[in-house]
Amino acid sequence: MSYENGNLTLYNAQRFQEGLYWCKMGDTLSNYHYLYVTDESEPIIMVRPEEALNAQHPAPPLILHSYGIKIFSLWSPWSPCSLCGMVGTCVRYGHCTISLLEFEQQEDDKVESNEALSTEKSILKRSKNETDSISEQPADYVNERLTDEEKILHRKLKRLAENVLKMFRNKLPCRSSFTPRLIQEIPEIKNRKTEIMKKFCKVKCPTDEIYEVRDRNGKVIETANNSAGIFSLAQGIPELQPSVKRVTLYEKHGYSLKLKCPGNMNTDLPVVWKVGTKILDPNLIKIQSGGRISIDSREQIKFKSLRYADINIYSCWQRNTLSGVIRLEVSYEMPKNLDYRVIMLGAIPLVSVFLYVYYRAWVGRKRNLSL
Length: 371
Fold this sequence. Notes:
Blueprint: E1 19-21, E2 24-25, E3 28-29, E4 33-35, E5 44-47, E6 62-64, E7 69-75, E8 88-100, H1 114-127, H2 131-134, H3 139-144, H4 148-167, E9 172-173, H5 181-184, H6 187-190, E10 194-201, E11 210-214, E12 220-225, E13 245-252, E14 257-259, E15 272-275, E16 278-279, H7 282-288, E17 293-295, E18 301-303, E19 312-318, E20 321-331, H8 340-370
Parallel strand pairs: 5-10, 13-20
Antiparallel strand pairs: 1-4, 2-3, 6-7, 7-8, 8-9, 8-10, 11-12, 14-18, 15-16, 15-19, 17-18, 19-20
């Protein structure tokens, strides 16, 4: 949706919408805005905050002196809480990002949330004691161990990184379509995963939003509960809310399947799955099913082997608001490994009887005609 105030809003962004966006007024162009959209092919790993003991923590920045680049996780702000009035979860993503070591960043490039900065500082603080795992050997030492062909390749990749990253203000996702394939194939970049961090949260449910119409004396003459979907004519036409998407899926018994929420409420809220009024707890459902059913870090329900008991209606919710419904049907599949030799042996007697009856009927007809 493109609004009159100059804002462009993309609902339910897809991978094909990745690219450069800019606006134009007359002969004047704005700055470019680069949109990077991830999908299910992105390798991910679940991490815990630095305060968590005996857990997988975020990976520290990695410096590649021979290429002149740094690999680090660029953290997004925490999402809103998935539920209100009860314990829910919020999530944030650390996307693999590369930047040049020798490049002066402008101050306005450092616009990040306080929580993201605190996480980055804690990672850097921990990395001081882990120098061996964070940084390569110095460039001179690395170059001594390289062959002539490898030195040429390193210089080529270094120039390539400089030319590309300067165009993107020294920040570019590792797996962006604008990141050259040669750079993406560097082992340290290829093996770096997108990090997902979750934590528990609890917030109060918002109160009803009441719109009031007053006269000149300030007396209320009309009220409308916007939270209940009731609006006043004085408000004008309200913004259209996203519709609830409903789909029906058919899958074979014994097959594996992933259920992804088919809709969203145009927000970055985590998804909560329900069957009827019962919330599907990721830990509980995995234990009860013996690991056959689980909810992954992308909030998708994974079935390793479908059973008829899995037939149900699954609904996904965002902050107590329905966003999508999936009706799952499990059907029986006929075996494909039939022995056609047995079928042929059984068909031969039937064909023989048919030909014999046809022959007898034909001979009897000729006798009648001769009489």
